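Posting for a labmate who doesn't have an account.
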Amino acid sequence: MDFESKLTEVSHDISLNSAPSVYLSTAQNIITELPEPTSIKDELGHLKEFSSKLKFQYLEQETRDKFLRLMLIEREQNITQAEVDALVEQNRRQKQSLKDIKTEMYSLIKSSEAVAEEVISLNRSFEARYGDVTSTLEDISNMQKELDNLLNEPENENHKALFNLKKIIDTEDIGLNEAINIATNALDQEALVLSQLEHNVEKTRIEHSSQTQVIDTLTEKLKKLEGLLQEAGNRPKDQQEPQQVFAQWLRELNMHLEKFIPMSLRLGESAQTLMFGPYQLEFDKELNITKCSDKTISSATIEEINHAKKEAKFWKLSHLLCRLIFRAEM
């Protein structure tokens, strides 16, 4: 809240008795509610204007009070020359006291204005330096990020170890032998990490080779099944036995896959359920998929398999099973 609005708010409450408290509270509120240092001079100007209005209000009320007291309360009495002289002397002393107070007030105002100028100057200097400091801090942060990125690159591992060793030597009082021991331990740790990485690479290579063999075996069986289906398709209708072909395919597939992943096949009267790992695939006697526990298999894929012809259905279903089995193994 600025001083003008505060003055408007309390103007109707200004009186001789309440003037000091209103002035002090208003000045205190203005001091605590300054939005920025650059407005100090404006607030001091409003305070000076408010002080002049209070002085005029005081003189007006004091004059009215004395006049009413003489006219309505005190009895008529003769005023002697001595009383006049006493009043003149009292008035002189009061004027001198008022002059001293005004001099002190003007001195305080001048001092306040000087302080305000200093505060404004310091605030401008602070704003200018604050921008420079902020920019410098951002540059330092960017340089630190670039240094960290350089040290984290694989080809700079040796430089990183030497850099960390130099920091230890610079920050701690250690001897040459201890520094060599620290460097040796760092190299041993790097060698251990390298050995673990080589072991993981070899393990991954073996797993990849095993999976490649599984894929080759399944591919061979699927090609064989495709040939059987083509032969079955060339037979007369009365000689086609797709259920026998399907049963033979399921037995061979189950025999080969059980070597690599736990799985089982549950045959029911109207449906078969193939279970492997966390997944279950249920389909009817026509090889139509009725339920799939893997939510990543879309309904469109299932519909495509279910509506395929018998020759293509075996192949699409085999492809889907391979996807699910390898996902369960991983």
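Reply:
Got it, the structure tokens are right above this. The longest helix spans residues 81-152.
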